[in-house]
Design the sequence.
């Protein structure tokens, strides 16, 4: 698995703000001040935030949300030792959650104590075994050491622990983005984008998810000098590619993916420049031919979902949602020139509310689970 991908993604799994903590016992004024402190912290005004938080702490002693926010502000300002002092109180608090162990580990990492941070995350997993974030944090440490196989293993454990958590898929998508198996990056990246929709999350990270998907497709489509037609770059006939299919009874999924992408590009004969519209057409041709050829070999939830969207008549709007943030020019051209564009987007939004993409414990989106059992 080669790793040269330098995508601009800074977040750690962003530490969850106090909004996610238990705050039912705080007054409306206290809640407003807590939100204000959080905004100040996130904008780098740590001293002003701490002033508010210290006052709230005096008025509401031993409140978990306030203690958590104080610890978060210490972490944000680089005062890791002070943050660690409060982490123990958080972990022993009746309202304790996995966030306390995440913060402890993050503070330890800030102090350069990665092994101790891993121990903190594992203590958290003993108490909260279904916490994807605590696996993700360890995966980031492995990734930082360029131990990509270990990082991949930890991100996959995160999916098994909490299949609906989008950031497990996102980190895997980044890992595979510059590998010889772009199928995994596309599978995980698209799943991450849809799962953020389920959580109604829209941030700069949402835009980066679209940019990642756009990058992986364009990075693997080439225009040879001697041939005017676009080609799919990976060696799609290489049956020795890394595979999680230990039975070897069929093509590894990345190989099957590469073959069908190459076929889709050839069949459509798009312009030499791959536009947003031609990419949408190629993806549509791919999913049609993939199921024609490999109906019984693979179980890929995201491919099944693509086929459902296509059969339901929302393919154009679906892909504009996926890639529009990465290719605003292409999206705007479609939106301005197609008189039904707005209607299509609204219809897809309504349809998605009733047919969201899901990844479950029974059927997770995982590389190791895509191969159907052979009779």
Sequence:
């Amino acid at each position: 698995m080669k790793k040269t991908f330098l995508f601009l993604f800074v977040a750690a799994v962003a530490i969850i703000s106090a909004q996610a903590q238990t705050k039912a016992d705080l007054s409306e004024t206290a809640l407003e001040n807590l939100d204000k402190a959080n905004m100040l912290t996130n904008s780098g005004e740590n001293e002003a935030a701490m002033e508010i938080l210290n006052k709230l702490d005096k008025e509401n002693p031993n409140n978990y949300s306030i203690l958590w926010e104080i610890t978060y502000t210490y972490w944000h300002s680089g005062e890791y030792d002070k943050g660690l002092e409060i982490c123990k109180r958080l972990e022993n608090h009746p309202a304790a959650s996995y966030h306390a162990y995440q913060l402890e580990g993050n503070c330890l990492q800030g102090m350069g104590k990665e092994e101790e941070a891993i121990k903190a995350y594992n203590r958290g997993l003993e108490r909260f075994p279904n916490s994807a974030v605590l696996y993700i944090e360890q995966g980031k440490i492995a990734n930082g050491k360029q131990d990509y196989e270990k990082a991949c293993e930890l991100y996959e454990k995160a999916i098994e622990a909490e299949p609906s958590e989008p950031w497990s898929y996102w980190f895997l998508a980044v890992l595979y983005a510059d590998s010889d198996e772009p199928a995994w990056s596309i599978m995980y990246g698209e799943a991450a984008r849809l799962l953020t929709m389920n959580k109604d999350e829209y941030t700069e990270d949402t835009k980066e998810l679209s940019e990642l998907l756009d990058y992986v497709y364009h990075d693997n489509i080439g225009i040879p000098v001697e041939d005017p037609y676009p080609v799919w770059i990976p060696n799609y006939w290489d049956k020795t590619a890394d595979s999680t299919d230990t039975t070897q009874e069929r093509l590894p999924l990345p190989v099957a993916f590469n073959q069908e992408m190459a076929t889709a590009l050839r069949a459509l004969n798009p312009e030499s420049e791959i536009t947003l519209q031609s990419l949408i057409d190629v993806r549509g041709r791919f999913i049609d031919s993939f199921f024609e050829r490999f109906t019984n070999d693979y179980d890929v939830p995201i491919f099944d979902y693509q086929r459902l969207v296509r059969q339901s008549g929302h393919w154009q709007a679906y892909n504009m949602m996926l890639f529009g943030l990465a290719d605003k020019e292409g999206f705007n051209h479609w939106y301005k020139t197609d008189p039904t564009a707005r209607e299509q987007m609204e219809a897809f939004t309504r349809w998605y509310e009733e047919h969201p993409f899901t990844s479950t414990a029974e059927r997770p989106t995982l590389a190791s689970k895509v191969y159907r059992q052979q009779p």
